[in-house]
Design goal:
The chain is α+β, with helices and mostly antiparallel strands. The chain has helices at about 5-15, 30, 65-75, 100, 115-125, 130-140, 150-160, 160-175, 180-190, 200-210, 225-235, 240-250, 285-300, and strands at about 40-45, 50-55, 60, 150, 195, 255, 260-265, 270-275. The longest helix has 15 residues, at about 115-125. The protein is globular. The model has no long low-confidence stretch (mean pLDDT about 95).
């Protein structure tokens, strides 16, 4: 079966799940998005893209951005980041405060909110304008110069960021935040509010399938670093549902509460899905099902 046929079949198979779950209601600008929408796109190692459904419709990437900021930080450091953030699954909600107190301000991994705030803090120290650096990278990798921050989503998220503000101040009290807390939170909110389509996202994530090699043939991260980013995506990328995601899908993935999921098949392709209806753990209901169907139909899995 050709890839376009696979993707079209997936659109049909997940149709009963479109509209299942609820959009992220704690960010008002996201709560208004129709949970029944769906798109899927695949970018192979040569940069060829296949898509189905609403694969060219832009949406808020939210926590999927954490993958890219992590890669940018690791590309610019000697991996000293890992003294500030761990690499273990959290087993708790993405915005939990409980582990931070027990573990003295060191977040469990870079994909929960606390860990991602530390990664953003590190990127600010490296480049200054963390969200601007990320946006430039995503534009280059996706080939879409029109990618932008959705200012409405950013304002909406900033107005409801009390928990993230508390998390950042708490880590700062342990000396684990180096830049001013308001600046870190602002940059974090802006990176999460970048809009991308499934096409854009699959192309931007392709370097992780290509063992760290960018669209222009240069190396962003080493093969070893790409392997490790993929490993953390598998174990931590879907919050406290990472075990279930690995069981059902069988490839590294990173979700976002905008309804997107970026999945990587190392050595083959990057796949992006989008459907805004979320389950209780903040992952797209139809998106997870679509990726389950994809790895089953293609036989492409790391297992």
């Amino acid at each position: 079966m050709e890839l376009n046929q696979v993707l079209e079949r997936i659109v049909e198979e997940v149709a009963p799940l479109r509209g299942a779950g609820v959009a992220a209601d704690y960010i008002p600008a996201l709560a208004r998005v129709d949970p029944g929408r769906f798109g899927i796109a695949l970018a192979d190692l040569d940069g060829q893209v296949h898509g189905a459904g609403e694969w060219e419709t832009a949406f808020s990437v939210q926590s999927i951005s954490k993958v890219f900021t992590l890669a940018l930080v690791l590309a610019g450091t000697d991996e000293s980041l890992w003294r500030r953030v761990g690499r273990e699954p959290s087993g708790n909600a993405f915005n939990s405060l409980t582990q931070l107190e027990r573990e003295r301000g060191i977040p469990r991994n870079p994909f929960i909110n606390a860990g991602a705030l530390i990664v953003t803090d590190e990127l600010i120290s490296q480049v200054g304008d963390a969200s601007g650096d990320l946006l430039a990278f995503l534009r280059a990798e996706s080939g879409n110069p029109d990618l932008r921050v959705d200012e409405e989503v950013a304002a909406s998220e900033a107005a409801h960021a009390d928990r993230n503000l508390a998390v950042t101040h708490f880590m700062a009290s342990y000396g684990n935040v180096r830049n001013p807390v308001p600046e870190v939170l602002d940059q974090y909110v802006r990176q999460c509010s970048i809009e991308m389509s499934c096409r854009d996202l699959a192309l931007a994530g392709r370097f992780l399938a290509a063992h760290g090699v960018r669209r222009d043939g240069t190396e962003l991260v080493t093969n070893r670093q790409a392997k490790r980013i993929n490993a953390i995506m598998l174990t931590c990328g879907t919050y406290d549902a990472a075990g279930e995601f690995a069981y059902r899908v069988g490839v590294p993935g990173k979700s976002g509460v905008g309804g997107g999921i970026l999945a990587i098949v190392p050595g083959r392709c990057a796949v992006a899905v989008w459907s805004p209806g979320l389950d209780v753990r903040g992952n797209s209901v139809a998106g997870v099902a679509a990726l389950d169907h994809f790895t089953t139909l293609t036989g492409w899995s790391i297992f």
